[in-house]
């Protein structure tokens, strides 16, 4: 523990699920964590309008209760003004940012190709591509000037080309095309940024779940109907948090520009999954929601 002592880290979309887990894991390692999401307090909602438990203040308090340091800020990654306000506040309070985790994401309820609206298209690319780039532009320059920084973009297997025919039912009727296209763009953005920042000692990598992390957001997305598929696999949210920590402590001159899958990456590097408080190894896990 203590691998992030003295570091300032910002995690978007951290009111619940993967983002909240990453924020807690970073807090346990000594970082001052800026927890951001659209929901500052109380219940929030996904982009389908479903009410979900979890808020920025709840996650920040969990970190503080565990002995860590955290600041809760409201930030809607889909709103340029909100992104600017949050970034300005971080720089005003801390003067710098060492680690940026672009976790906030949405499918905006997108469906099959012939049902996608202009509003959905704009929303998906605003949150999954333009928002992360905007935040990178706001914080990356400072990282480059200090010759130190870590940027992690959360991506998805949906960015891969579906294999077939026959194609998996998840792709034939799951409405994944727009979300997958946005995440594919984010992957290319990641490798391009890694190249451009390679002389500045700033690592830029992308991380995706190896399989499904069953969080409140996943449950609200309609994926429940695919849980009975024969090739369906779930993984613990702690695996994503551990992989995120590993990628935000790498030597930027050695490891940058990669798109990796959580448990696969951990296995290849021989790293065990720890609990979110970092005090023990994960032995038995349960989905974040039943």
Concise overview:
With 290 residues, the protein is α/β, with parallel strands linked by helices.
Question: Describe it for me?
Answer:
The chain is an alpha/beta fold and 290 residues long. It has one domain: Rossmann fold (3-Layer(aba) Sandwich), CATH 3.40.50.720. Helices cover 39% and strands 15% of the residues. It has nine helices and eleven strands. Strands 5-2-1-6-7-8-11 form a seven-stranded parallel beta sheet, with helices on both faces. It has a two-stranded antiparallel sheet with strand order 3-4. Helix 4 links the parallel strand 6 and strand 7. Helix 1 packs across helix 8, helix 3 runs parallel beside helix 4 and helix 8 crosses helix 9. The two termini are 30 Å apart. 47% of the residues are buried. The mean pLDDT is 93.
CATH topology: Rossmann fold
Task: Tell me the strand percentage band.
Answer: 15-25%
Order of helices and strands: EHEEEHEHEHEHHEEHEHEH
Helical segment count: 9
Low-confidence stretches: none
Number of domains: 1
In helices, the fraction of residues equals 25-40%
What overall form do the CA principal axes indicate? globular
- The count of β-strands is 11
What's the level 1 CATH class? Alpha Beta
Termini Cα gap = 30 Å
Specify the structural class.
alpha/beta
The value of Rg in angstroms is 18 Å
Biggest sheet, spatial arrangement of strands:
5-2-1-6-7-8-11
The largest pleated sheet is described as: 7 strands, parallel
CATH superfamily: NAD(P)-binding Rossmann-like Domain
Name the average pLDDT. 93
